[in-house]
Specification:
The complex is a heterodimer of chains A (369) and B (442).
Chain A: E1 3-8, E2 29-30, E3 34-35, H1 38-46, E4 51-55, H2 61-66, E5 81-85, H3 100-105, H4 108-112, E6 118-123, E7 126-128, H5 132-141, E8 146-152, E9 162-166, E10 172-177, E11 186-195, H6 196-208, H7 214-220, E12 228-232, E13 237-239, H8 243-252, H9 256-264, E14 279-281, E15 286-292, E16 297-298, E17 301-307, E18 312-313, E19 318-320, E20 323-324, E21 329-330, E22 335-337, E23 339-341, E24 346-347, E25 352-354, E26 361-363
Parallel strand pairs in A: 1-4, 1-6, 4-5, 8-12, 14-16, 15-17, 16-18, 17-19, 17-20, 18-21, 19-22, 20-23, 21-24, 22-25, 23-26
Antiparallel strand pairs in A: 2-3, 6-11, 7-13, 8-11, 9-10, 9-11
Chain B: E1 2-4, E2 10-12, E3 16-21, E4 42-43, E5 47-48, H1 51-59, E6 64-68, H2 74-80, E7 94-98, H3 115-120, H4 123-129, E8 133-138, E9 141-143, H5 147-157, E10 161-167, E11 177-181, E12 187-192, E13 201-210, H6 211-221, H7 230-240, E14 245-250, E15 254-256, H8 260-269, E16 296-298, E17 303-305, E18 307-309, E19 314-315, E20 318-320, E21 323-324, E22 329-330, E23 335-337, E24 340-341, E25 346-347, E26 352-354, E27 356-358, E28 363-364, E29 369-370, E30 390-392, E31 397-398, E32 403-404, E33 409-411, E34 423-424, E35 429-431
Parallel strand pairs in B: 3-6, 3-8, 6-7, 10-14, 16-19, 17-20, 18-21, 19-22, 20-23, 21-24, 22-25, 23-26, 24-27, 25-28, 26-29, 27-30, 28-31, 29-32, 30-33, 32-34, 33-35
Antiparallel strand pairs in B: 1-2, 4-5, 8-13, 9-15, 10-13, 11-12
Classes of the chains: A alpha/beta (369), B alpha/beta (442).
Chain lengths: 369, 442
């Protein structure tokens, strides 16, 4: 393969509210049986990238748990492999990772020991399906120093993203991270391709200057000195950055086109196998427009919802417009509407969890309602 | 314990290894076992029958399993692979598929002619692990058992052979191999399908042998019987020599799924509200080979009750009292009742299926009706298809709008021309696979 992969999986977002209290964003459960990081990780594997580093930091226990074996994504071979890199103590002290660039630099030996000429860098919280080879071909053809994958978006607030303006041949003429005022509706998806040796060199330079952020201190700062190009991507892409976006992404999986894209068209998104039995529908179940995870037992009503693995919905219980994570138990007669139930929540008989249409109610992991 | 062999290399000792007999054809399962051995037949949605004994092995701490294959082994071999789903991919031990083979000096190879003969032909395999005990199980029963407990009993009684037994209803005892025991569970006689049973303890086909003695017995007896079998020859020989045979009573769920009706009924057992055999218990999980497994989707007009639905299924129609394997598609308006639909099959719009077993990868056209009409038993194979269940063989296609009766068998890519007046009456057979000569695959 021509590239190694780096997945920046250290992040968290306060706008995820209670959901991020127990896990890093890339470990967020998505689409009934996946976690967010399955998407970039499967994209890497499916693009033929055999050596991938996942850099973790914030609240990484559940992420490490998910990545405890690399076999689900086809890594763990004699050539290449999956490298899960967390902050460590060293002679120089413990800084944690002071930024995305610093997190790569503290693990620079991963890059130094690689032979592949290019590096694909992506976040761990984007939901998308991409063949990085197409981006790499573009990168080589343009003789770019850095390629940034971009997308035109409509009807969303772009000031939370890196906003990009492209010249005629795709060269990035303007780049501003989280601008006060948007100057275009093209955003960076946080997916980059860069020559490995150039990345090592740039990291060395900026870290010695006390700069630690890949986007601000490399992409933005060097945009005039380097040839930085934008590769336009047009398919489905979504990022988990708030409770509402998390809710919406899960609901997107109820759409036939999205399900077909991820589930029916090769290559597939892979995840850790939990060996659960088939979903069981009992005599009183009424399930309409739902994704149901394996190991679930349904005897009540579920509508327009995403149910993860091992969810129990008792007789006479009703679940509507909700995201119900793994191991939740909705007891007989309970009602859940417009809600996100984190893992292992119990909603007891007679209890109600009701959120607003544009603002799902979030129940913390392990709560009893 | 490490034992140095004469050659100086090491044989690490395994206390007990398992030999899993998976070579049987299972002819009473009719078209379901035409292209695959019985242990490879799908069961309980996402599983295959062999997953149950295989999972029992690993859940009991038996990490070395020899799988004896013979009849149509391709799908079985693919399913087992190197044992990854059961954590049986091991540096020492793990799973080994053991097909019949030629030995030095033979003009022709030997098939496995009987259950004990299959073990005899693999003495070298067993010796590589130098086990104290050998567990012999078969690949065609649905149950969950801790073989470790059975081994503890074997040691405690000082038995030479321990045979797992199940109390069956007295009126059915004449269908089984019956063990007559004393009050301590010591077996003093054995009768295969006795007309007048003296006991209702039926052999489950699960044996623990002390290997030294078993090896000696196999070597001693094999010349006498060309088709050396456990029940017919080896156990009687042990009894004749006054060896210690003990019964190990088992009281959990155990089903032989050797006939179309028992196979269907055991599947249906799983969908009861409180099933006797509970797949959802956290201990002793059943493992299976699973490739791509997205979640299951139920459409806005779907109506699913009392059913098991596996990963990747898309259900837009009605599914009642049924079991769907992985990646099954039930289109809008289709009705599936009391049926088993295996992996990857597609049921098109407005078709109605009642008491039908649809094997892997079938396509049922729109507006068809299957399992409708009088309950007339199958004309060609009345002993196999006689309980009202219609069976559609692997990879079959059924055209739009046809009506198919009960106890029918369909296999192959059928078109409207194959149906007289758009019908296949109850008890009819439509098998097009014989006529198509497959080209020799290079």
């Amino acid at each position: 393969m021509r590239a190694v992969g780096i997945i920046l999986a250290g992040g968290q977002s306060d706008r995820l509210r209670e959901l991020s209290a127990v896990r890093a964003t890339p470990a967020m459960p998505v689409g009934s049986c996946y976690r967010a990081i399955d998407f970039p990780l499967s994209n890497m594997a499916n693009s033929g990238i055999r050596k991938v580093a996942v850099i973790t930091q914030y609240n990484s226990r559940s992420l490490h748990d998910h990545l405890n074996s690399s076999k689900w994504w086809g890594f763990g071979r004699k050539q290449g492999g999956l490298f899960v890199l967390a902050p460590f103590l060293s002679k120089e002290g413990n800084f944690g990772f002071r930024g995305t660039a610093d997190s790569i630099h503290q693990n620079i030996s991963f890059l130094e020991r690689s032979k592949e000429p290019y590096v694909v860098i992506t976040g761990g919280d984007g939901i998308y399906k991409m063949d990085y080879n197409a981006v790499l071909d573009f990168h080589i053809q343009r003789d770019a120093d850095i390629t940034v994958v971009c997308k035109d978006v409509h009807g969303m607030d772009v000031t939370n993203f890196g906003v990009v303006a492209l010249g005629e041949n795709g060269r990035i003429t303007h780049f501003e991270e989280k601008p006060l005022e948007a100057f275009s509706n093209t955003i960076s998806l946080g997916i980059y391709i860069i020559k490995r040796t150039l990345l090592i060199e740039l990291l060395g330079t900026i870290i010695s200057e006390g700069r630690f952020d890949f986007v601000r201190d490399i992409v933005e700062r060097y945009r005039k000195r380097l040839n930085i190009y934008g590769f336009m991507y047009n398919d489905y892409w979504a990022v988990i950055n708030s409770a509402q976006s998390y809710f919406n992404i899960n609901m997107d999986f109820l759409r036939t086109d999205i399900r077909n894209m991820f589930f029916a068209q090769e290559p597939f998104i892979e995840t850790k196998n939990k060996d659960e039995p088939p979903a069981k529908y009992n005599a009183h179940s009424q399930v309409k427009n739902c994704l149901v995870g394996c190991g679930s037992i349904i005897d009540g009503l579920a509508e327009n919802s995403v149910l993860f693995r091992r969810v129990k919905v008792g007789e006479g219980a009703a679940v509507r417009n909700s995201v119900i994570m793994e191991g939740c138990h909705i007891y007989p007669g309970a009602i859940v509407v417009n809600a996100i139930l984190d893992k292992n929540v119990k909603v007891l008989s007679g209890a109600e969890v009701i959120g607003g249409a544009g603002e799902p109610k979030v129940i913390m992991k392990g709560s009893v309602v | 314990m490490v034992i140095t062999t004469l050659r100086g290399d090491f044989v690490r000792k395994k206390e007990m290894i398992a030999m899993l007999l998976a070579g049987g054809q299972g002819s009473r399962l009719g078209v379901l076992t035409k292209n695959k051995a019985k242990p490879a037949v799908a069961f309980g949605g996402k599983y295959r029958i062999i997953d149950f004994p295989m999972s029992n092995c690993i859940n009991s701490g038996v990490d070395t399993v020899g799988v004896l294959t013979q009849y149509q082994p391709l799908q079985l071999n693919r399913h087992i692979g190197i044992g990854i789903p059961w954590d049986l991919d091991r540096r020492h031990g793990g799973v080994t598929v053991l097909p019949p083979h030629m030995k030095a000096g033979e003009e022709e190879g030997n098939w496995y002619t009987g259950t004990a003969d299959a073990i005899y032909q693999n003495i070298n395999f067993i010796d590589r692990y130098n086990p104290t005990y050998v567990l012999v199980i078969s690949g065609d029963h649905i149950y969950r058992m801790d073989y470790g407990e059975m081994l503890a009993r074997h040691k405690q009684t000082g038995a030479d052979v321990t045979i797992a037994v199940l109390e069956v209803p007295w009126e059915e005892a004449n269908r089984f191999g019956i063990m007559n025991t004393d009050e301590n569970g010591k077996i003093h006689s054995f009768e295969e399908k006795p007309k007048e049973p003296k006991s209702n303890l039926a052999s489950m086909g699960i044996y623990i042998f002390t290997w030294d003695m078993m090896q000696a017995a196999l070597l001693e007896v094999h010349e006498d019987y060309a088709d050396m079998d456990f029940g017919k020859h080896l156990i009687p020989e042990y009894l004749k020599q006054n060896k210690n045979l003990y019964a190990y009573p088992f009281s959990g769920y155990w089903k032989d799924v050797g006939t179309i009706d028992s196979f269907w009924a055991a599947n249906m057992d799983l969908i009861k509200t409180v099933p006797e055999f509970d797949l959802y218990e956290d201990f002793a999980k059943i493992y299976t080979s699973s490739e791509h497994q997205p979640p299951q989707f139920s459409g806005a007009n779907s109506d699913i009750r009392a059913s098991l639905i596996s990963e990747g299924c898309q259900v837009y129609g009605t599914v009642h009292n049924s079991i769907l394997g992985t990646d099954v598609h039930v289109a809008e308006g289709a009705i599936v009742r009391d049926s088993i639909i295996m992996e990857g099959s597609v049921i098109h719009e407005n078709s109605v299926l009642e008491k039908v077993i649809v094997d892997v990868g079938c396509v049922i056209g729109k507006n068809t009706q299957i399992g409708i009409g009088e309950d007339i038993i199958n004309e060609e194979k009345p002993k196999i298809y006689n309980t009202g269940i219609t069976v559609v063989g692997e990879g079959s296609q059924i055209p739009e709008g046809v009506v198919i009766g009960k106890n029918c068998v369909i296999h192959g890519v059928t078109t409207a021309e194959n149906y007289i007046d758009g019908k296949l009456e109850s008890g009819g057979t439509l098998d097009l696979t014989e006529e198509v000569q497959k080209p020799c695959e290079q």
